[in-house]
């Protein structure tokens, strides 16, 4: 006779805590008084172990008043799921960028929200890298615009321009805006006898 395997029963609350404490995102539950009533391990590591019972705005922004356009207040008023990017000051006083999602987690029988869950993902590295990339693009765009030679970039597969400098007007008589707006201008500008060969190359 086969032995029955023992089933380990886990209480819903313990299961909830285990799951949320195992993820890298910062998770907080905020009540209608804007108090943090629960926080996972990642949130405590980022904002400090003693954040439970504190006002969310004092923890996240080191402020004495609620944030402008507070997502928790928005959700507590019955709005739908809310997503936004913001910067938050961590326990060390360092500003970090987060992508946050908030949603109602608790309601009364009157259907009025009593608490929201806010999940925050640290996107500081992404924001920093994007900022550096934009600065780099601006630098090289400025350089390209200062040259009298024609500079452009194009999609190799679909054969249309993604960027062209102002020199295009001198060579072809079109403004950069016109050139980019009409994807056929590049093809039209090639001599009819050479068009097939140039496109094939």
List keywords for this structure.
25% strand; 9 helices; alpha+beta; 201 residues; 7 strands; 5-stranded antiparallel sheet; two-stranded antiparallel sheet
What do these coordinates show?
The termini are far apart. This protein has helices spanning about 10-20, 40-45, 55-60, 70-75, 125-145, 170, 175-180, 185-190, 190-200, and strands spanning about 25-30, 35-40, 80-90, 95-105, 115-120, 150-155, 160-165. It has a five-stranded antiparallel beta sheet with strand order 2-1-5-4-3. About 40% of the residues lie in helices and about 25% in strands. It is elongated. A hairpin with a 5-residue loop joins strand 3 (about 80-90) and strand 4 (about 95-105). It has about 200 residues and is α+β, with helices and mostly antiparallel strands. It contains nine helices and seven strands.
Describe what is shown at a glance.
The chain has 201 residues and is α+β, with helices and mostly antiparallel strands. It has nine helices and seven strands, in the order H-E-E-H-H-H-E-E-E-H-E-E-H-H-H-H. The strands form two sheets. It has a five-stranded antiparallel sheet with strand order 2-1-5-4-3.
């Amino acid at each position: 006779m086969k032995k029955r395997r023992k089933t380990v029963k886990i209480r819903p609350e313990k299961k909830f805590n285990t799951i949320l404490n195992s993820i890298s995102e910062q998770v907080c539950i905020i009540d209608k008084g804007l108090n943090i009533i629960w926080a996972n391990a990642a949130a405590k590591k980022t904002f400090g172990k003693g954040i439970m019972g504190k006002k969310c705005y004092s923890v996240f922004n080191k402020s004495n008043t609620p944030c402008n356009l507070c997502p928790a207040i928005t959700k507590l008023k019955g709005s739908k799921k809310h997503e936004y990017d913001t910067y938050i000051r961590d326990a060390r006083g360092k500003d970090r960028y987060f992508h946050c999602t908030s949603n109602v987690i608790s309601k009364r029988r009157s259907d009025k929200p009593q608490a929201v869950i806010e999940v925050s993902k640290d996107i500081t590295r992404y924001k920093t890298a994007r900022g550096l990339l934009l600065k780099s693009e601006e630098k090289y765009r400025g350089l390209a615009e200062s040259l009298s030679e024609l500079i452009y970039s194009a999609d190799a597969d679909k054969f249309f321009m993604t960027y062209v400098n102002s020199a295009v007007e001198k060579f072809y008589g079109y403004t950069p805006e016109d050139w980019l707006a009409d994807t056929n201008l590049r093809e039209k500008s090639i001599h009819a006898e050479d068009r097939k060969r140039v496109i094939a190359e």
